[in-house]
Amino acid sequence: MQVSISEIFIPPARQRVTVKESAIAELAVSIQSKGQLHPLTVAPIDRVRFPDAPDHIKYQLIAGYRRLLALALLKMRTITVELRENLTQLEQEEIELDENLMREDLSWQEEIKAKSRLVDLRKELYGDSIKDVATHVSESRGELWEDQRLAKAIELIPELANSKNKTQAQNKLRLLTRREALTVKAAELAAGSSNPHLLSFEHKIRLGDALQEVKKWSSGVFHCIVTDPPYGINLDTGETKKGNAHPTIYADDTYDVMDLTAQIIPEAYRILQDNTHAYFFFDIKQYARIFRLLTDAGFTVDPIPLVWVKPGSGQVNHPDSRWGSGYEACFFCRKGTRALLKQGQSNVLQHDPVPSGKKIHPVEKPVSLIRQLIESSTAPGETVVDFFGGSGSTAEAALQTGRNFLLCEKDPAFHAGIMERLAKFTATTTADPTAAKTNAQVDEDEDDWAESFARNKKG
Predict the structure, then answer these.
(1) For residue 43, what are the β-bridge partners?
(2) What is the pLDDT of residues 264-296, one digit of tens each?
(3) 319 close to 328: Cβ distance less than 8 angstroms
(4) What pTM was computed for the model?
(5) CA angle 219, 366, 281 (to 5 degrees)
(6) How far apart are the first and last CA of the chain?
(7) Distance CA 280, CA 332 (A)
(8) Do 172 and 160 meet the contact criterion of CB atoms below 8 Å apart?
(9) What's the sign of the alpha-carbon dihedral 196, 202, 205, 207?
(10) What is the pLDDT of residues 282-340, one digit of tens each?
(11) What's the rounded Cα separation, in Å, for the pair 406 and 268?
(12) In this structure, what DSSP letter does residue 389 have?
């Protein structure tokens, strides 16, 4: 049926609240050349819900907001509509959501909000489960569950909506959720724990600021340092296209981090025995500064850094002007003349990163990568130090290879995460009858290591 545009009321509470002017203009051009192919969906005006609607209004818009704007832009007086009568408010909202989800120009924020609301609506209208709704929108139950979970989280943590895409937002939500759980565990640890596995590591995982802790340690004691300081790249602020801030998960302020690094490097040199090694991961943009700090402290530094190459296209926030970042750099430092125990390796390290869904820490390094460094520079029984414990991958790598370790972590939540990780690892290995031998005698991931070593040697 044909109605006058002036007779249609646009309800204020709509699922789609913003539209691009350019998209409306493109749609208007299409309608002008091809005509109006799809009618708008309207219902008789509900005077109870909208008592202030002008008297000449006869209908309220249910679906077709973009088409209505495009037709108005063309100064059309009448348009084709489908009149739906006797619809409840929930049924009207369902029709709007269904139509919007069939379109391809929704932002990811609008899309997940629409899906989440549709799940709630169809449950109330028809008793549908999330699996039923997933079938209705033609996607997997797991994907729909993730989208609904993220939509609900954005209501509580609006900053998540500033993420550049849905995947980034979901990863941040996982880390935030994990952090909340670890914060609870941190409180339990502070109150005292009776778990023997946790208690066995308490003195090896120091809760506190690394710089303050290391000043308490004796000189010339330890055998190796493997550490991954914050890079000072404002990780949580991020370099988004619009400069939007992200939820704070991890402290990484440029000035504070570089000042901390400058102070801790001399301490690192002091606590190492003679003829030992150290590995410092760093932001490649800070190459000159970190190299100078390490050499000024007394280290002999290989000017060609180790490069951990990650598979895939790499991460980049400005793909139009930059190549994706697919590697991280690490300085190999020597105090004295100790030779590498594993020789003939490439300085290109090939290890898969930790999957986002399994990370304890946002910048977690894989255990296999840390193991390669530890086994190249230490013998079983020697002690490895990590000033920035993070996820505890250094500690687990040390346990796997029969080395001792000492870690610092100032964040109580991540400290609790390390304790939990090592407790689980110990409980698993001691419960396994094949793990009766010492960690120095048995290496559960020897096959993985051999494969990585062979791959690096070829490179």
Answers:
(1) 60
(2) 999 999 999 999 999 999 999 999 999 999 999
(3) no
(4) 0.62
(5) 45
(6) 71
(7) 7
(8) yes
(9) positive
(10) 999 999 999 999 999 999 999 999 999 988 776 666 677 778 888 999 999 999 999 99
(11) 13
(12) -
| Identity of residue 207 | L
**CA of residue 19 relative to chain centroid, distance:** 29
Gap between the Cα atoms of 165 and 120, Å rounded: 24
Please tell me whether residue 50 adopts helix, strand or coil conformation.
Answer: coil
Q: Enter the tokens of residue 446.
A: 């020897």
Strand partners of residue 327: 309
| 264 touches 215 (CB < 8 A) | no
Beta strand ranges found along 286-361 (DSSP E): 300-301, 306-309, 327-335, 348-350
**325, two tokens:** 């970042």
Say how far residue 377 (Cα) sits from the centre of its chain. Answer: 32
CB burial readout 4-32, b (16+ within 10 A) else e:
eeebbbebeeebbeeeeeeebeebbeebe
Q: Looking at this protein, which amino acid is placed at residue 298? A: G
| Cα atoms found within 13 Å of the Cα of residue 136, Cβ hemisphere only | 20
CB 166 within 8 A of CB 112: yes
Which SS3 state, helix, strand or coil, does residue 5 take?
Answer: helix
SS3 334: strand
